[in-house]
Design brief:
The complex is a heterodimer of chains A (949) and B (80). Chain A is α/β, with parallel strands linked by helices. The model of chain B is unreliable at 71-76 (pLDDT under 50). Chain B is mainly alpha-helical and 80 residues long. The chains are: A alpha/beta (949), B mainly alpha (80). At the A-B interface, helix 23 of A face helix 1, helix 2 and helix 3 of B.
């Protein structure tokens, strides 16, 4: 049996050839005798596919606009001359199409012959089933090639050495048919424009800008690989593992975009392996796109560093001892109970993880409230978007962004502040760039010259390089211009908002003017005024922001300030507008929704509300504490004070991610029992007494909720590698503590969430499996969710305009520490790096570096690559410098992906006044050439402040 | 001198409301602390006030005196 006769072992998503069209009107066409109704504007190719008629194609794919170059999808239309390409021919009402006439079959055979004349017979993709050419040749009946065919790849006219520079995929030009799908994917979908077609005729070849892929502008999003109809661009995992045999639809476990993926797998049970992750076209958040993390960096789930057995030790100086689950859980329960017996009910607590599912997080907060008997539950959102929760609840009535991601496609002006989406939220950034290429205007307010300020076919109308710590001054000045010049939406303010008179008087005061605030913001007042006018005059103006807003001493005030700006200009309650937080981790929104804060039950309801408390008391059969518990920073302070002595940490690495590392480590050392549940022995585990192995997203059954409130299913690809699901572990601890909490399946946990949380009332696994995803609120089983919030009325009734007085941070540059450090992320790494550092993503970012302005570098004698000491009033570390014009003078920047450099050794205890979110973005520092040189200096970089006094 | 965590955090809150009339500011600060602070932190703040800790913002001192007056919270943490 030839390869062509082998049955298909793989069932990829249906490719409709051209994108779906949204239109109110439809037309009816008949294709090969089958009638189909499609929206006006739909191509014949797509209509045929929808009707179950397969038309051969090569250059067409439904993620890209029709190109009309391959001449394979030719058809005949009754009453029309010629043989049009079905991909570029729109359906007309009453059209009768024939796709298999002898005329078009002959033309296709001839065209196919030409393709085969330059396609090697030894194409390994064809043999493997990952190249469409051979199968298509069989379909169109090209039995022989009159022009000859290269027997091997070396004989192909445009063959070049295989480019294997990228760790995840290769490019073999000999298999390439130069259909330009990859070029168009890079430009139209990703928006990077890294690829082009070089040469002419038979010498035409795809080029990554004249260099190899790794050295090029390529960001390894995988869009080109996804689009390639041959094996020219191919995942290296396909070569290593072969084609997948099944797929599982699930959700990425990296950033808050929450992309849907098909985990394509071979093997079953414990032998199953992920062959590749491909972005799901039906994913509401990503619609078929991906980034280098979600698409490729999943190998950490099976990394040799995974800890698969529970372990205990009496002291943090002892070696770990593997134990059974029963012994580990008994140790945890006995330890926590002993602490409570000696030091009180409130002496223990838990931290839930934004990397875990809603169901896993829900049971952790339930365990703390019902089994521990207190409200000492907090989550890592404390250190990122807790000000978003506070600010948006105060102003709009609920703690979430107002829009879906698709909304950006209607925006006319985008204010991007404190966010760098091309690095931190790359799939959404591609969506935003597409809108900018269509003509939307962009205002970037950021100290750094981020990529979106100027990149291929995108240029911000204004880049306002605000000084770190001046966000509130900036947003007040923006709103001041709009109100004082009468550009605000008076009707919206009067009808939809409250406290309008007081707020308008406050913001119109000259003390909020751009000129008055220029000393704080560092921004040219004229530029700021022009930007404010642009925002005010937009039909739809939208605000997108990230941790550059929240991680400040006035993070919550700034969120309210942005809400004020949106309300004053009437930019709330429809598509294209809104206040849009770009959440950091995959389930930050969900972990907050699930009651992970010490003052709130699920659904953001305060623990003091007797009616809400009663719901849980009745269901859980326990009297619950009506007082708020400790937040994470408060836990540390209380640990050092001796009143907090036991901590359960689910999937977080607080010893690396939280500020003032010395303080965190001292607090952990002070506790009697620290329990870490994680994939790896992370930095925090150095201070743990019990280690409980966790499960990766490929083993989880549950849901994640992304930044647009979209609840997506997470489905297991493998059985748990550690023998238990994480929610089962948590329940087991609860039971061992004396509180009976059990579920038969994760779906039962969601059922309990839905039964007790009005905004989730219509959510269940069954409904999610049926409709794909839903954006809360989902008030009942008739609803499929709420993409846009606050239409007609705010959740709290009227939107609240709150006076946002600018109060400068107490962290200021001094003669000793004259620079300001701000921290962030880079594209290839994620958060503390526990996942991405265990993948080939280290190729791009093997260590954290300090970006510094040329003038600041020169005066210190620093060149790119030099080791430098970075010191603040709390600590010091050593890392390499990168002189960069992206930085403004006086400001330096680094990431915190690598524990060896430990950027948080230098960040301080300063925090947002309302939520205690750390002020990561403003730390006064000094930088100097390191005395010691060599890698060992980095390895032994971190020192507390005492040694630098 | 090292400032107690409760004093530092309380002062941060107080600075946000310094633009309000003092009595109103103290009331708002007290309500925020009740809504978000664990009882042991509130007790620590009250102890600092009782000790006469001079690092405390006067508005925070006033707010601490109002904590006991709020036995129940029908509307948690609504700003003025």
């Amino acid at each position: 049996m030839s390869l062509l006769e082998q049955p298909s072992i793989w069932d990829p998503e249906v490719d409709f050839g051209t994108p779906a069209v949204v239109a109110d009107a439809s037309v009816s066409v008949t294709i090969d005798g089958r009638q189909v109704d499609v929206p006006v504007g739909t191509s014949v190719l797509r209509a045929a596919t929808e009707a179950g008629v397969t038309i051969p194609k090569l250059c067409a794919t439904d993620s890209l606009k029709a190109f009309g170059s391959c001449r394979m999808c030719l058809v005949e239309v009754d009453g029309a001359k010629g043989v049009p390409a079905s991909c570029t021919t729109p359906c007309a009402d009453g059209m009768v199409v024939s796709t298999q006439t002898e005329t078009v079959r002959e033309l296709r055979r001839n065209v196919m012959e030409l393709y085969l004349s330059d396609h090697p017979e030894d194409c390994d993709g064809c043999a493997r089933g990952n190249c469409e050419i051979q199968a298509l040749a069989a379909t169109v009946g090209s039995a022989e090639v009159r022009y000859g065919r290269p027997e091997s790849r070396e004989q192909v006219a445009h063959a070049h050495p295989v480019d294997e520079s990228n760790p995840y995929f290769s490019f073999d030009s000999s298999s390439c048919i130069v259909c330009s799908r990859c070029v168009r994917a890079c430009s139209d979908i990703q928006g990077t424009f890294a690829l082009t077609v070089e040469g002419r005729g038979f010498d035409s070849r795809i080029s990554a800008g004249g260099s190899d892929f790794l050295s090029s502008e390529c960001v390894s999003c995988g869009a080109c690989v996804q689009a390639c109809p041959t094996s020219a661009l191919q995942e290296r995992s396909i070569v290593q593992l072969g084609m997948p045999t099944r797929s599982v639809e699930t959700t990425c476990a990296y950033c808050g975009v929450g992309c849907s993926f098909r985990a394509e797998v071979s093997g079953e049970g414990q032998d199953a392996q992920v062959v590749r992750m491909t972005p799901s076209k039906n994913g509401g958040a990503n619609e078929g796109h991906s980034c280098v993390k979600g698409r490729f960096a999943y190998g950490y789930a099976s990394h040799q560093d995974r800890q698969l057995s529970p372990m205990v030790r009496d002291s943090i100086d002892d070696e770990w001892r593997p134990v059974s689950w029963d012994d580990a859980i008994a140790t945890v329960a006995a330890g926590f109970k002993a602490i409570q017996a000696e030091h009180g009910v409130g002496a223990i607590g838990g931290i839930s993880s934004s990397r875990c599912t809603n169901e896993e997080v829900y049971v952790v907060q339930k365990m703390v409230r019902a089994a521990f008997g207190n409200n000492n539950i907090d989550t890592c959102a404390r250190v990122c978007h807790s000000p978003t929760g506070y600010g948006l609840k105060q102003t709009f009535g609920t703690s979430a962004g107002t829009q879906d991601f698709r909304s950006v496609e209607q925006a006319d002006v985008i204010l991007l502040i404190g966010a760098n989406p091309t690095d931190a939220h790359p799939v959404f950034a591609s969506r935003m760039k597409r809108r900018l290429r269509e003509g939307a205007r962009l205002i970037v307010a950021d100290p750094r010259r981020i990529a979106l300020v100027r990149s291929p076919h995108v240029e911000a109308s204004y880049h306002l390089p605000i000084l770190p710590g001046s966000n509130v001054a900036f947003v007040n000045a923006m709103t001041h211009v709009i109100v004082s010049e009468g550009l605000h939406d008076e009707e919206f303010v009067r009808e939809r908002c409250e406290d309008a008179d007081d707020y308008l008087a406050f913001i119109a005061d000259p003390s909020n003017s751009p000129e008055a605030m220029a000393g704080a913001t560092g921004v040219d007042p004229d530029q700021l005024r022009e930007a404010a006018r642009l925002f005010a005059h937009a039909g739809n103006a939208a605000i997108y922001y990230g941790l550059g807003v929240t991680e400040h001493s006035q993070g919550s005030t700034m969120v309210m300030g942005m809400a004020n700006l949106a309300m004053v200009t009437g930019n709330i309650g429809r598509s294209g507008v809104g206040v849009n937080p770009l959440r950091g981790q995959n389930n930050v929104q969900g972990s907050c929704d699930m009651g992970s804060f010490p003052h709130e039950f699920p659904g953001y309801r305060h623990v003091s509300e007797a009616g809400v408390r009663g719901i849980y008391e009745q269901l859980w059969g326990k009297t619950l504490d009506a007082e708020p518990g400790l937040r994470i920073p408060n836990m540390f302070d209380s640990a050092l004070a001796g009143t907090f002595r036991g901590l359960y940490i689910q999937g977080e690495d607080i010893a690396q991610s939280d500020p003032n590392t010395q303080h965190v480590e001292a607090a952990l050392r002070a506790m009697d029992l620290v329990v870490v549940q994680d994939l790896f022995l992370n930095e925090t585990a150095r201070f743990a007494h019990v280690f409980l192995p966790g499960t990766s997203f490929l083993e989880k059954d549950g849901t994640f909720t992304n930044a647009e409130r979209r609840i997506n299913r997470v489905r297991p690809v493998f059985d748990s590698k550690v023998g238990m699901d994480e929610w089962e572990i948590t329940c087991a601890i609860g039971r061992a503590m004396g509180y009976d909490m059990s579920y038969a399946a994760a779906s039962e946990i969601m059922d309990e969430i839905a039964a007790t949380t009005p905004t989730f009332a219509g959510v269940s696994f069954a409904r999610l499996d049926e409709v794909g995803s839903m954006q809360w609120p989902v008030f009942d089983n008739d609803s499929v969710g709420t993409p846009i919030m606050h239409i007609g009325e705010f959740v709290r009734g009227k939107g609240r305009l709150i006076e946002t007085v600018f109060v400068p941070t107490t962290e200021r540059s001094t003669r000793k520490f004259p620079l300001i450090l701000t921290t962030g992320r880079i594209l290839s790494q994620y958060n503390v790096g526990a996942q991405t550092r265990r993948t080939a993503n280290n190729t791009w970012h093997p260590e954290d570096v300090l970006e510094i302005h040329p003038a600041d570098a020169e005066v210190r004698g620093i060149s790119t690559g030099d080791l430098v000491d970075l010191s603040s009033r709390v600590g010091s570390t050593t890392l390499r410098a990168q002189v960069s014009e992206r930085m403004p003078a006086g400001v330096v920047y680094t990431t915190f992906h690598h524990p060896v450099t430990g950027a948080n050794v230098v960040t301080t205890e300063n925090s947002d006044w309302a939520t205690n979110c750390p002020e990561y973005k403003v730390t006064a520092v000094q930088v100097g050439v390191a005395n010691a040189r060599g890698d060992e200096a980095v390895a032994e970089a971190r020192e507390p402040a005492e040694t630098h006094a | 001198m090292k400032i107690a965590a409760e004093a530092r955090m309380g002062n941060d809150i107080a600075r946000q409301f310094a633009h309000l009339p003092p009595a109103q500011a103290a009331e708002v600060i007290a309500r925020h602390i009740e809504t978000f602070w664990d009882p042991r932190m509130r007790r620590e703040l009250e102890a600092l006030v009782a000790e006469g800790d001079d690092s405390l913002d006067p508005l925070l001192v006033d707010a601490a005196g109002r904590l006991a007056a709020h036995a129940s919270r029908s509307e948690p943490d609504a700003l003025p």
